Amino acid sequence: MASKAIYEATGKDIITRHIAPGTALVPCRFAVFEQDTVWEDEIGKNPWITKEKLVVKPDQLIKRRGKLGLVGVNLTAAEVRRWLAERSGKGQQVGAAVGKLRRFVVEPFVKHEDNEEMYLCIQSGRRSDTILFHHQGGVDVGDVDAVAIRLEVPVDTFPSGEDVKRLLLKNVKSATVKRLIITFILSLYQVYVDLHFTYMEINPIVVTGERIYLLDLAAKLDQTADFICAKNWGEVTFPPPFGRDAYPEEAHIADLDAKSGASLKVLYFI
């Protein structure tokens, strides 16, 4: 297995395209802005940007963006444009790493209450996948290893709705929310398995007005499954960690991949 992180926008796109009908998930809408993106061109592709309140944040594998002041919330299009101008190409320290902010994602702002935020994570192990859930999510979720409830899913098995309800959602009071979350978790896990994800963390997942929203996502794919999943993944880039530019080999393969009808990747084995 070669577990490689992907951009947040990529992960949300894959989930939106492949999750089964019948969940309460609101399809993810987003626009990606890089240093060479022309604002007017992106507005033309995504006219909703000028009609709704927005969220803007870097999409460069940076953890705890909210704590770092790297999330603009409830902004107008004009405010987002200023926010981008002030930060694009600027240096940023994240822990011990220092890098430049070069890629951002803009999404619709979802109005909700703090008690509608939850935490959900799926991660792969050698003999089983683990689904973690906490009924309180967001920037102040704390130590999820200590507070989240776990459901172990052995390899080649699938969780039942009763398992999810009884084990994961025992602290969720609303019967309606439980019903929506059960359906969503089972459908999401199917995507996780079918598309060879190795890690998927949603914090927060918001349930409001009987709809589900993915506000923040971190995800990894098994890069060695490219020959199986390339068509369903779509265009996937495996970016280097924040603070490190692509190695020459990575940049060379990426350039060849862009020019070739084949799917060319650098493989990392861990």
UniProtKB/TrEMBL annotation:
Gene3D superfamilies: 3.30.470.110
ATP-citrate synthase ATP-grasp domain span: 2-233
InterPro entries with a match to the protein in the record: Citrate_synth_N
Domain of life: Eukaryota
Name assigned to this protein: ATP-citrate synthase ATP-grasp domain-containing protein
Species of the source: Parnassius mnemosyne (clouded apollo)
